[in-house]
Design a protein that fits this description.
It is a single chain. The chain has 178 residues and is mostly helical. The chain is 73% helix and 0% strand. It is built from 7 helices and no strands. Helix 2 runs antiparallel to helix 3 and helix 3 runs antiparallel to helix 4.
Length: 178
């Protein structure tokens, strides 16, 4: 192989197509997040959230973690987004509130801050040398279980405590009489 093929991957090679797939997944994730954040209707925001979650699951799969990808699809897309959808459908409709006028600098200031942040990240990404990472594990359930219960056991216990507190909070809110 000559040196020019190593420095500039062709679109029709495996590396080039992997880059295109990665960019598509990033685009899907960012588009879903943008829809979720900017939509005025709750149902559209939930749909954007689901698209964002599917994009994140694709990124997990692309980064050699099929188990985490499937858990992302099952838990976030399958459970959380559906639960939010049912909550919206079962909630009583609210009266429409009139929005007051926004300040003249609110939109341009937010856009300028976001553009500055995106520009800084773009420069950082383009100037950094990204070495190829060696494959550390196979992403299997067995490997995740071993690491979760040995190296990361404290995090596993903290997550269970946070989930217990969330369940107790939901019970308190459900029993509260308005």
């Amino acid at each position: 192989m000559n040196q020019s093929m190593l420095t500039h991957p062709n679109l029709f090679t495996v590396e080039g197509m992997a880059g295109v797939v990665f960019l598509i997944l990033i685009f899907v994730t960012l588009t879903g997040g943008f829809i979720a954040c900017t939509s005025r209707r709750v149902v559209r925001a939930i749909a954007g959230l689901i698209v964002c979650f599917v994009g994140v699951a694709g990124l997990y799969f692309f980064l050699n973690s099929p188990f985490v990808s499937m858990m992302q699809l099952l838990i976030y897309v399958g459970a959380i987004a559906v639960a939010i959808s049912f909550a919206v459908m079962l909630a009583a409709p609210e009266e429409k509130k009139k929005l007051g006028p926004t300040g003249p600098l609110e939109g341009p200031l937010a856009f300028g801050s976001a553009a500055l942040l995106a520009g800084g990240f773009s420069v950082l990404v383009l100037k950094t040398k990204w070495p190829a990472m060696a494959k550390t594990n196979d992403g299997s359930i067995k490997e995740i279980g071993i690491r979760l219960l040995t190296e990361h056991s404290m995090v596993f216990e903290l997550i269970s405590i946070v989930l217990l507190i969330a369940i107790l909070g939901a019970l308190v809110l459900a029993r509260r009489e308005d």
